[in-house]
Amino acid sequence: MRQLLYGFLFLFLFTFSAKAQNKPIDIVKSNKWFIAGPSKESEETINTIRLKRGIITVTAKDNPKGEIELNVMITASESNDGVPTNLPSESKFVEITYQSSQIIKLQAREGNSEGTGCVHGGSHPRVTLPASPNKFKTIKIPWTHFKQDELPNGKLLNIHNLCKFNFVNYNPVSGSVLKIKSVIIN
What we know:
The protein is α+β, with helices and mostly antiparallel strands. Helices cover 19% and strands 33% of the residues. The strands form 2 sheets. It has a 5-stranded antiparallel sheet with strand order 1-3-8-5-6. A 4-stranded antiparallel sheet has the order 2-9-4-7.
């Protein structure tokens, strides 16, 4: 009887543990974010607000020169580099809740072919996030929609070699805003 009880307890704990590990993670809440380009907010400010309010906010400076790139590693890291993440084959999409006054290009950055991880050189299959200036919008983007240079025959994203997401505003205008409430990988 005792062995049967231990068997059920083990099975229960194993099942509970397996389900907990498969729970989607919101990388807005769990991961440090990085910024480059003419943004009013510093990396420190972005992450402080993220931790306090659960939201990412980036505002273009007046008369911005160059692009603004906001990025986050798929696997939490204190640096803007690391090893690629091997998502399970069952992963089919990313779900993003955002608000933006301009079109944003979302790059899914892969590890490089040299095998040195996420150092520059990997491909950047991407999709377009339409502007949504007046309200937050939630979209599900299948991994199959990420293609190199957004070309119909562009190289597809390899989810088994995924480093980070880059949210890029290539042509920011003064005061343009991007807010992100969640980025959930399913």
